[in-house]
Amino acid sequence: MTDLTVRAWGTPGFSQPLEPVTITRRPLREDDVLIRIEFAGICHSDIHTMRGDWGEREYPLVPGHEIVGIVEQVGDKVLNYRPGDRVGVGCFVNSCGQCHPCELGEVSYCEQGPVLTYGAYDGGELTQGGYSQAIVVRESFVVAVPPGLDPAAAAPLLCAGITTYSPLRHWGAGPGKRVAIIGMGGLGHVGVKIAAAMGAEVTVLSHSTAKRDDALRFGAARHVSTAVGLPEDLHNYFDLILNTVSVDLDTSAYLGLLRFDGALVQLGLPGLPLQTPTRMLTTRRRSLSGSLVGGIRETQEMLDFCAEHGVTAEIELIDAEQINQAYDRTVASDVRYRFVIDAATF
Ligand SMILES: [Zn+2]
Ligand SMILES: [Zn+2]
């Protein structure tokens, strides 16, 4: 079998706008799945990578790690997928498989570093992401997209969905638990929906009030504007706070919102180191932690949960021609709430 040539959108060089490019996919190995891509979400980390915020890469580079498509062909030893199945691919396409986190199925925390879906080296081959017509991925890094989910609106679940689902599960969000989500963008809005579906009481903490109605519609019990400071009556209140924004916040002030045994979990990456007096942790046995994307098994669990509870992302579907404009609008927070590219337009 020979390489498969596919059309894609990527950047031809450092910090350049995206344009049509042609890439090749490897011939199918025995454990590979060839996926004809239907939809690809635009994640903020695509923009950071493409615009050079995280350094120079090898080019051309095609981003995209929120991928939904249909299986077209499978290798001889593939057990779980058949042509015609709808599947998804998220942030990783390989990991060492041997280290402690890998043995636990937590590939995001692979001690060798998981192999990212784009811009990484997988056995010497540069990975290229989902802004393309097709992708070849090992079966063990493919998840099934349940029939109940709208495939375009499900695409962002592969990154934004699992990034919020994983800490919500880990810290026990559910009935009787009070959860706050800081920021309601691409990540946050899915987090609100998932936390509410888990049965938690959800509060959105947001600088502006512009998304208040949406927050309530997504299942939040309340929306609190933080523009004039954090309300007194929320001190010692929450069991879990997920911070989805990457701006530098007053960590101590947010820790003060946690009640006994509560946890503040960072999902975004602020520029400055986090700082807080230690007593903010000791007095109520609070935790300050961080979380990455979940593993593959947990991603499948998340998709099944979302199908069962009717949770998908709110999306604006665009053509490939609109990608650069969509990047500008995402940076300007001018999207409700995630752009998804129709792969038929690549
Ligand atoms: Zn992402
Ligand atoms: Zn590993």
From TrEMBL:
InterPro entries linked: ADH-like_C (IPR013149), ADH-like_N (IPR013154), ADH_Zn_CS (IPR002328), CAD-like (IPR047109), ER (IPR020843), GroES-like_sf (IPR011032), NAD(P)-bd_dom_sf (IPR036291)
One Gene Ontology molecular-function label: zinc ion binding
Catalytic activity: a primary alcohol + NADP(+) = an aldehyde + NADPH + H(+)
Top-level taxon of the source organism: Bacteria
EC id: 1.1.1.2
Domain Enoyl reductase (ER): from-to ranges: 10-341
Coiled-coil regions listed: none
Cofactor or coenzyme needed: Zn(2+)
Key words of the record: Metal-binding, Oxidoreductase, Zinc
Keyword Repeat in annotation: no
Family note: Belongs to the zinc-containing alcohol dehydrogenase family.
Database matches in PANTHER family: ALDEHYDE REDUCTASE (PTHR42683)
Protein name per the record: alcohol dehydrogenase (NADP(+))
Source organism of the structure: Corynebacterium hylobatis
